[in-house]
Amino acid sequence: MTDVVTREPPEVRSATLADIPGIRSILIEHGNDGPTTIADVVGPYLRHLVTTARALVVPEGDRLAAFGATVETGNGRHLTDLFVRTDRLGTGIGRPLLDRLFGADSPRSTFASDDPRAMPIYIRAGMSPRWPGLYMVGPGAGVPAGGEDLEIEPADGGRLSGLESAWTGRDRPGDHRFWTSQADADPFVVLDRGEAVAIGCGRARQNSPERVLDRLLIRPDNDALGPIYAALRRVARGGQVLALVPGPNPAVRPLLEAGFRIHERDTFMASEPDLFDEVRLLPNPGML
After folding, report:
1. Based on the domain organization, do 176 and 95 belong to the same domain?
2. Pick from 133, 104, 124, 81: which is nearest to 246 by CA?
3. pLDDT value of residue 5
4. Residues 15-64: pLDDT tens digits?
5. What is the pLDDT of residue 1?
6. The domain containing residue 147 runs over which residues?
7. What is the pLDDT of residue 3?
8. Distance of alpha carbon 2 from alpha carbon 5, whole angstroms
9. Final residue of a domain: which of 132, 162, 188?
10. Is beta strand 13-14 parallel, antiparallel or unpaired with respect to 54-60?
11. What is the CATH number of the domain that holds 95?
12. In angstroms, rounded to a whole number, what is the distance separating the alpha carbons of residues 287 and 174?
């Protein structure tokens, strides 16, 4: 007779601010955190998740074995992070943690890394691959022509949140407060003859000199290319700029032809096919 080995479900609890050093140690193991040579980006991001989102950890003795978080986007629940300590991979921690993070909520979405272990767990959790997310980097001076007639002016989080709510019905004031408070943040509104047609925010990277177009949302009835090009030039400040561009976005080919390159890629996964407009949203990679 063969004994059946059963695994005890892992302990899962809410993350606290005191857990952040342990969480960062897990992220470092996966290459998602590192030296702060320019500005600390990861620390404020984790503090935002722990204090405003559904953030959970798996404690194990005097350390944390795993961390995950989800945010409510107005269109569903989005998984921002799911990391298991490297020496605990394959031990039955990830799936129970994921189930707790999503609960019964649907629609649901996430970005899956190129790690082949990531996508199967998300498919089993009810999500399907929808499109590649391309991390594109290039010189601001090389952005294709277009959008030069658009004006850009600074804005605060309240204005950006109000415009997003008016355009999409999604109300995310807390997330906009975070985006506009990041390291060397540059929140702005793109105007066409005085009317707002896009909102965005640039920021610094943690340990690389490129500026990041952290998020850009274009008004649903507006052409996408002009605001995308104008925003990239704005955020670059004459140097290099990095942005997450959905694979189906019409800017991908012109940017490649202009000298931009694909630095990394993720796969956007979702339980529904049309949760977001991949033409008019250049998403924040963690929180959409």
Report:
1. no
2. 133
3. 44
4. 999 999 999 999 999 999 999 999 999 999 999 999 999 999 999 999 99
5. 42
6. 134-266
7. 45
8. 9
9. 132
10. antiparallel
11. 3.40.630.30
12. 12
Does a structural domain hold residue 233?
A: yes
**Whole-Å CA distances, 261 to 205, 225, 286:** 18, 18, 21
pLDDT at 8: 81
Q: Which of 41, 40, 44 is nearest to 52 (CA)?
A: 44
Count of helices and strands (H, E) across the chain: 8, 13
The answer to whether residues 74 and 170 touch, using CB atoms and an 8 Å cutoff, is yes
Q: Which H or E run includes 261? A: strand 261-270
> Cβ atoms within 10 A of the Cβ of 42, count?
17
Q: How far apart are the first and last CA of the chain?
A: 52
Q: Is the peptide bond before 132 cis (omega within 30 degrees of 0)?
A: no
Token code pair at residue 92? 């039955």
Q: What is the pLDDT of residue 4?
A: 43
Enumerate residues 6+ apart whose C-beta is below 8 A from 223: none
Which residues of the chain register pLDDT less than 50? Answer: 1-5
